[in-house]
Amino acid sequence: MAKMRVGYLGPEGSFSHEAVMSVEDVEPVASPSIADLLSDVAAGALERALVPLENALEGTVSATIDGLVFDHDLVIVREIVLPIHLHLLARPGVTLDEVTSVRSYVHALAQVRGLVQRLRVETVQTTSTSQAARDVAESAEPWAAVGSRLAGALFGLDVLEADVEDHPDNATRFVVVGRGDVAAATGHDRTTIVCFQDADRPGSLYGILGRFAARDINLTKLESRPTKRGLGDYCFVIEFEGHVVDDVVADCLVDLQAHLARVKFLGSYPVVGAGASDRRAEVADARASASKWIAAIRARVTPL
Fold first, then answer.
1. pTM of the predicted model as reported, rounded to 2 decimal places
2. What does the alpha-carbon distance between residue 148 and residue 33 come to, in Å, rounded to a whole number?
């Protein structure tokens, strides 16, 4: 049986490559950019793609979220959280004081500001951390790359300095996206949607958030994104606990869709980590008790 072809941000040795290797029974396919990955899935050239969505230090990866919100109708089916340890890599024989530039993906460079300030060299953005390692390996210049140990080993580079990220608790959340099928509910799930307003008015965001609060749905992330239709025009990307098959989630989404210009569904998928299922169990028990309470009151209603 042929394995599912899942794209990742290449070349080999990137953190995306490490993340996709943790997915069972897939054929990893390297791609030069996040935009290409999403386009290839939308066009059917790839069955799915693994893309970085959020970093613990630098926040949302704009290329991913904007591609999902504005450019393609894809759904998130899975998330993977990968601890990120960044290393300064150079060709054998190059010393730290000889380095003239540091190269890496834009988010990786932003995670090593302390290193860059200390070295006082130029930074050069590349399409991925592993592409930076490849560029350094193929150049005769005394360049250095910020990337993984795997990238260093693949391209024959030495580690000049290890663990150069500014903060130790660094991690990236990757998501696997596909064309249509929604992941089955597990009881420990997250849903992501985008809310578009028909007009910006006082209390509009409160009106959106209030619908979640009224149903005891816990939000895990809220982010505004420019709609690209004009300065000050924003939509809201919302992540929350629960799955679209949950009655309370479905009721909330129906309410939002009825009162907003548009709601875009980006997927319901299993959550990495613990805690959300316990919270939903508590809410379910509370709602069951409340339902019995109101049913008992209604049973007392008699015709006049």
1. 0.82
2. 18
